Structure formats: structure tokens, C-alpha cells
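Fill in residues.
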């Protein structure tokens, strides 16, 4: 069997590193053709030496560094050219492990080139899901999600002839599930970055604390599985063992269970339709004893409802929600605003936006830019004090 030639966009992040562990776990099955990163060129350099990709994209500092590094046989690209890497003829599968809106153009390029795309990144589908899915259908590109909830739904739908009546996205509840609301205003980035179940990048960890991450997943699922927002339910499940469920007309629920380790959905996406050993420990349900479920508390975590509303309104609203959230979370991580301001600022931008229905790519990018500027304007007085 010929090795699957993969490009890992965002190889230095949490998903990227787990993807490379999956490559190591399956010798001979993959060839790493391309790697990309933004700032962390030192880690990237180690990856280049180990995996010998022929194409690498990196941010400006890294580009300067690699010019004089003496590395041979690698074509270097500026990070803004990740789309070029995603559509290389030498690539079979593109792993979208980069964070943020920057994944949009590579995602579109990959589906237009008919690649198999394994997205962990959710921002691209949130802001331009209609466009991406339309292009994927047109170019017969296969999308096999890595995000664990979407992977679970994908797996539960495998081999089913009937469409689901609903899907149940599970949520661990994030780092604030047991923190009293009165303490939210004191939460620092350090407090928030201690997630009880998943070890992830900083942006998604903050989004898990506000439950905005779950809201983004609602919009992501809507596009990936062609569902209405009202067919998507969110269920808090603190053990994070059931990664999501699918409900059919007869009342049957199918669930996918597994240890909380992203290597599982990553490997499934990369070896699909095969299932191979992961080297992960077995799930010991008897030792676990019980699984718990509760409804999400929308009063404490209003971002989830806001995201549902953005998904229902559609058009440019999800792009606005995502862009405002990206700006505000970055300000929080830099210690410029408090935790409670995250929701307040995002909600203000949401309320000020005039939706464009069925937007073009240009209109989506304009809405994204508008939302960032609006968020910055709203935060300005706070940033000064
Ligand atoms: N982590 C998880 O368990 C998990 C689960 C489900 C979904 N996801 C989604 O997967 C994506 C990646 O998450 P993560 O936790 O792996 O994030 P992360 O640890 O912060 O890693 C982000 C990766 O993207 C690169 N990057 C950052 N900004 C970039 C830009 N402007 N252009 C190109 N590359 C850029 C980073 O490079 P440098 O390291 O050089 O900065 C790094 O390689 C996110 O969309 C997240 O929502 C993550």
C-alpha cells in the first residue's frame, strides 16, 4: 500500500503534535509532505529534520531563520500561502490543525483541489460553512472531521440509511462548571487555562470556559451534517467519555465512546475507513463506574445561546461572532480585559451587526473585518484603564 501523503497545517500546536504522534504510531502508512507553523520555528525545525517534508510554511521570523539555516530540499513559503500548500498535487490529505480564521483559505483551496480534508479547525466552517460544503460537493472532496464531537457524529452515521432526527453534542462543561458564578469576574487566564479534561491550545480552552466553543460546534455540525440548528442539542457530560450521540426516528440513540485523547479521532480521520490500534489505554467503564449528564446552564454561559442564535440567523452572523470572539479572547489572554467582558463585548458586536444573507466570500471577509474593528472599539476604554 502506498503511504498517504499528508500536509499538516499547524504542526506545532496541540492537534498538530498529536497528528505527528499518530504518524509515529503507524510507520510506513503516512508520508509527511508539508508542515506549517506560525511563530514556533524552533519546534518546526525539529519536525523538519525528523519528518523531512518538501514544503513548509512559517511566519516572517521563521522565514528569516530558515533562509540561513542551511536546510536543503525544502521549499519555504510565507504562512499566508498555506492555501498553496493545501492544494499541492503531492498531497492526498490535508490536516487542518491551525487555529483561527487563517484556516479558511487553505480549507477552500483543499476542497477545490479535491483533497481529503481532516479539519480540527472549527473557525473556517463556522464562518463559511455553506461555501466550503458547496465547493466540497462540487469538487468531490471528502471531509472527515477531527474535532472529537464531529468525529463521533460522523462515526455514528457511518452505514446508516436513515437521516438522524437530532444529534446530541456532549460538552465536558469546561473549567468553570463547578465554579460559582460570583467568582467568574475574578477568573484570570491562568485559572481558565487549567481545563479538567482536554489539553488544548489557549483560544479553544477559553472558548470551552464560556461554552462558546460548544456554540461553534453547533454551527460546525449544522454544516458538516446538513442539519437545522433545532436538530442539534447540547448535553453536559463531565467525564467526556461519550463524544457525541445521534438520535433516529425510532428513538434509538447511537453514541461513540472513547478515552479523552485527540489521537483517537485524528487517527480515525487519517486511516478511514480502517480502524487500527492507537496505542492508547483501553476505556475501563467498570472503573469509571458512572457517566453523568446535565443540561447546560444558559444563564451562566450565555455564549452558547448566542452561538445558537448566530447559527439560526446564518448569513454573515457566524463570521461576526467568530471574529469578535477571536479579538476579545486574545485581549483576555493578554490580561487586557476581564473574563466577564468576553461575553459582553461579543454580544454588543452581535447586536450591532446588519446581516448579509447568502454572503459571498468577499462579504464574509468584510463582515469578519468589521466585527474585529467593532470589538476593538468597544474594548478601547477598558484597554486604557
Ligand atoms: N486542541 C484540541 O484538542 C482541539 C480539539 C478540537 C478542535 N480543535 C481546533 O483545532 C484548531 C487548533 O487547535 P489547537 O488547540 O491545536 O491550537 P494551538 O495549540 O494553539 O495550535 C495552533 C497551531 O496553528 C498555528 N497558527 C496559529 N496562528 C496561525 C496563523 N495565523 N496562521 C497559520 N498558522 C497559525 C500555530 O503555530 P505556532 O505554534 O507557530 O504559533 C500552531 O501550529 C483550533 O481551531 C481548535 O478550535 C482543537
Amino acid at each position: 500500500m502506498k503511504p498517504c501523503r499528508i500536509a499538516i497545517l499547524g504542526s506545532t500546536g496541540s492537534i498538530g503534535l498529536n497528528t505527528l504522534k499518530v504518524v509515529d504510531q503507524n510507520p510506513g502508512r503516512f508520508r509527511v509532505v508539508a508542515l506549517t507553523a506560525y511563530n514556533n520555528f524552533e519546534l518546526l525545525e525539529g519536525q523538519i529534520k525528523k519528518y523531512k517534508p518538501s514544503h513548509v510554511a512559517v511566519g516572517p521570523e521563521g522565514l528569516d531563520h530558515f533562509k540561513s539555516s542551511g536546510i536543503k530540499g525544502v521549499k519555504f513559503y510565507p504562512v499566508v500561502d498555506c492555501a498553496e500548500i493545501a492544494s499541492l498535487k503531492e498531497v492526498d490529505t490535508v490536516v487542518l490543525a491551525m487555529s483561527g480564521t487563517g484556516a479558511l483559505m487553505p480549507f477552500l483551496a483543499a476542497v477545490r483541489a479535491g483533497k481529503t480534508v481532516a479539519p480540527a479547525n472549527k473557525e473556517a466552517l463556522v464562518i463559511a460553512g455553506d461555501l466550503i460544503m458547496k465547493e466540497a460537493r462540487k469538487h468531490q472532496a471528502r471531509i472527515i472531521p477531527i474535532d472529537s464531537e464531529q468525529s463521533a457524529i460522523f462515526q455514528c452515521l457511518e452505514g446508516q440509511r436513515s437521516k438522524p432526527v437530532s444529534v446530541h453534542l456532549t460538552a465536558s462543561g469546561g473549567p468553570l462548571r463547578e465554579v460559582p458564578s460570583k467568582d467568574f469576574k475574578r477568573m484570570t487566564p491562568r485559572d481558565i487555562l487549567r481545563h479538567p479534561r482536554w489539553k488544548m491550545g489557549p483560544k479553544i480552552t477559553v472558548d470551552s470556559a464560556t461554552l462558546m466553543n460548544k456554540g461553534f460546534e453547533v454551527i460546525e455540525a449544522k454544516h458538516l451534517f446538513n442539519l437545522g440548528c433545532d436538530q442539534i442539542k447540547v448535553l453536559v457530560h463531565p467525564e467526556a467519555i461519550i463524544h457525541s450521540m445521534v438520535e433516529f426516528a425510532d428513538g434509538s440513540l447511537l453514541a461513540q465512546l472513547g478515552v479523552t485523547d485527540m489521537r483517537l479521532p485524528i487517527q480515525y480521520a487519517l486511516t478511514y475507513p480502517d480502524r487500527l490500534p492507537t496505542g492508547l489505554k483501553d476505556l475501563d467503564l467498570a472503573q469509571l463506574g458512572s457517566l453523568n449528564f446535565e443540561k447546560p446552564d444558559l444563564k451562566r454561559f450565555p455564549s452558547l445561546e448566542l452561538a445558537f442564535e448566530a447559527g439560526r440567523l446564518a448569513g454573515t452572523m457566524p463570521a461576526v461572532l467568530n471574529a469578535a470572539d477571536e479579538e476579545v479572547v486574545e485581549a483576555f489572554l493578554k490580561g487586557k480585559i476581564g473574563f466577564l467582558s468576553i461575553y459582553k463585548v461579543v454580544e454588543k458586536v452581535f447586536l450591532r451587526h446588519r446581516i448579509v444573507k447568502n454572503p459571498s466570500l468577499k462579504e464574509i471577509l468584510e463582515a469578519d473585518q468589521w466585527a474585529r474593528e467593532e470589538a476593538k472599539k468597544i474594548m478601547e476604554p477598558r484597554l486604557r484603564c
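Residues 4-143 form a domain with the Rossmann fold fold (CATH 3.40.50.720).
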